[in-house]
């Protein structure tokens, strides 16, 4: 009886699916009386608003024999997309596409892994590299939003977001009670602002904590100073491919109350959850997460160079070392937050070139710090840890008492706004601001053992991925993926006062490869930097490095929020590889659909039958 029932259900399901053939889904912003449909081989089929988002339209329609395109329907004034889409044979669902974009998923080559991750990491779709997701914010507090946009430098309270929706090709996440504010310091000078999202900020007390990829706080980075908009994303991916603990980043379109705000890089912000994700494999119950302090440089006299000046807290300017998160350390409060860090600086000052590996390992995992220093140097991160003694987090593990340094804020890298062009070719021994003190760098590279290891790290990174033969294909893929969104972004009127970034759509592709508007090209920089390192350390960039051992640590989150010790859990479309790269496919083939993803694309009747059949 059960087998007969399952057969009948399967036949009914096949009929329901084949009757429509394909489940279409598109993000769109129809105006007035417009509705949304899909034109398949010239015939328009209406789509329905999804319950997940009023801007997501779904429905069943035949599989195209040739092409299909989405249409804004308005009587005789229908507005089809400017391009036609093609579909792979056997596709049962398009995934969530975006009206006006010719393609959703792109083939972006992953960076080869130089070293396995030093710390166990939670790998998630936060680090997508091959698609642009969409974030839609809706707020009824238009007065507060308008005040914030008109006065981005003002000390204003967060604007409550009634509904936030994150939509990628294979997943939709919705939130309420989100806090929204402007973000950054120098970025507030620009008309295109950067923003911060605080999940659960206005949620009722005691309600379950909502997370996006295990995050509670996120930033939307405008990348206003970078004509390519990819430098920061590339640097984050380089750190992951080098085995460093790092923030994640992915490209998103931003809409607020139906208005387009542009293309952004969605990145992490400091929180206990961030440290749990990147140092403790996503163990959100970890009791080892100590305080996280942000290092900052105010000027050449006041900088977060980790120099020990004594135990008196007054010797350390407040803005130079800022407590970002207490972690699980209940003893930390505002007036004593620097005490543990001063202890670190004291222990660092006591190390000598003759100090043993055991001495260093009491303080930190040296190789992890060397990886961050190597990429600071290779990218000429002139606003970063090594050169500027700025833009890093330092976190203490309460169980091992080791400290981990995590660098961030990478828009000014790979030659961007580089005033001293010598930094593009200078040997690492000369990579420092004149007359500056860098105890961490000097102590580590003053050790013969760690100096040799640092050079090995540099060579391995260059041989594996920091070279034009690897980067060229990745940058070309990003040109194809981002060019439509860049053109859209640069056609928008800004929502805040401030200076324009000065870029036009054509600067995007040109700036990827060659000097444009007096800014060195991204690939041009990588070519010169890698050639100089090869010459200085007398090696070639051929990848003759031994294969890495299998990576067995870390944990993986799928598109449904399930966490596993292995990738591809739950038939996860969009699995994350050990280097943090997303591996989503271009269209949804039947074998890849899990129960929840199938539910997203089936009609209500088919969904009901699918649920019933799954119970048997």
From TrEMBL:
Q: Name one Pfam family in it.
A: CotH
Keywords from UniProt, A to Z, are:
Signal
Tell me where the signal peptide lies: 1-19
Q: Does the keyword Signal apply?
A: yes
Q: Does the keyword Signal apply?
A: yes
- What is the recorded name of this protein? Coth protein-domain-containing protein
Q: Which organism is it from?
A: Lichtheimia ornata
């Amino acid at each position: 009886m059960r087998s007969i029932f399952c057969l009948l259900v399967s036949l009914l399901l096949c009929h329901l699916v084949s009757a429509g053939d394909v489940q279409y889904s598109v993000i769109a912003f129809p105006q007035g009386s417009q509705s949304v449909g899909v034109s398949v081989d010239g015939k328009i089929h209406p789509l329905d608003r999804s319950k997940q988002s009023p801007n997501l339209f779904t429905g069943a329609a035949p599989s195209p024999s040739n092409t299909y395109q989405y249409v804004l329907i308005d009587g005789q004034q229908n507005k089809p997309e400017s391009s036609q889409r093609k579909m792979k044979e056997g596709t049962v669902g398009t995934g969530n596409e975006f009206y006006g974009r010719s393609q959703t998923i792109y083939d972006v080559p992953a960076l080869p892994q130089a070293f396995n991750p030093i710390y166990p990491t939670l790998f998630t779709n936060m680090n997508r590299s091959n698609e642009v997701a969409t974030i839609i914010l809706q707020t009824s507090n238009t007065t507060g939003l308008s005040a914030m946009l008109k006065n981005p430098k003002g000390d204003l309270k967060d604007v409550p977001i009634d509904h936030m929706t994150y939509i990628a090709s294979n997943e939709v996440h919705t939130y309420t009670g989100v806090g929204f504010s402007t973000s950054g310091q120098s970025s507030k000078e620009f008309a295109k602002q950067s923003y911060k999202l605080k999940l659960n900020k206005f949620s009722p007390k005691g309600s379950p904590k909502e997370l996006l990829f295990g995050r509670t706080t996120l930033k939307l980075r405008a990348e206003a100073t970078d004509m390519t908009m990819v430098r920061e994303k590339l640097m984050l991916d380089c750190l992951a491919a080098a085995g460093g603990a790092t923030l994640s980043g992915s490209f998103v379109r931003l809409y607020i109350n139906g208005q387009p705000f542009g293309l952004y890089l969605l990145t992490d912000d400091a929180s206990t959850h961030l440290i749990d994700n990147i140092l403790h494999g996503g163990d959100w119950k970890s009791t080892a997460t100590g305080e996280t302090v942000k290092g900052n440089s105010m000027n050449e006299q006041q900088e977060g160079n980790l120099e020990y000046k004594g135990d008196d807290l007054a010797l350390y300017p407040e803005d130079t070392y800022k407590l970002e998160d207490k972690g699980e350390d209940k003893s930390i409060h505002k007036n004593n937050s620097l005490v543990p860090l001063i202890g670190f600086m004291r222990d660092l000052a006591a190390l000598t070139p003759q100090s043993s590996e055991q001495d260093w390992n009491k303080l930190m995992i040296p190789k992890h710090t060397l990886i961050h220093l190597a990429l600071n140097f290779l990218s000429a991160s002139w606003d970063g840890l090594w050169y500027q003694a700025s833009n890093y987090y330092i976190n203490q593990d309460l169980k091992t008492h080791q400290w981990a340094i995590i660098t961030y804020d990478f828009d000014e890298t790979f030659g961007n706004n580089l005033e001293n062009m010598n930094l593009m070719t200078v040997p690492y021994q000369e990579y420092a601001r004149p007359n500056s003190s860098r105890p961490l760098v000097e102590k580590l590279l003053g050790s013969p053992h760690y100096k040799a290891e640092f050079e090995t790290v540099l060579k391995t990174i260059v041989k594996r991925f920091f070279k034009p033969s690897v980067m060229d294909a990745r940058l070309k893929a990003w040109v194809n993926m981002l060019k439509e969104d860049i053109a859209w972004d640069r056609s928008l009127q800004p929502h805040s006062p401030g200076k324009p970034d000065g870029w036009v759509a054509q600067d995007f592709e040109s700036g990827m490869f060659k000097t444009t508007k007096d800014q060195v090209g991204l690939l041009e920089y990588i070519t010169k930097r890698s050639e100089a390192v090869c010459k200085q350390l007398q090696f070639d960039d051929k990848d003759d490095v031994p294969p890495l051992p299998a990576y067995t640590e870390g944990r993986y989150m799928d598109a449904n929020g399930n966490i596993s010790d292995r990738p591809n859990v739950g038939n996860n479309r969009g699995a994350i590889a050990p280097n943090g790269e997303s591996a989503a496919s271009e269209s949804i083939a039947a074998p890849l659909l899990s129960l929840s993803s199938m539910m997203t694309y089936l009609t209500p009747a088919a969904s009901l039958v699918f649920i019933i059949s799954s119970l048997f």
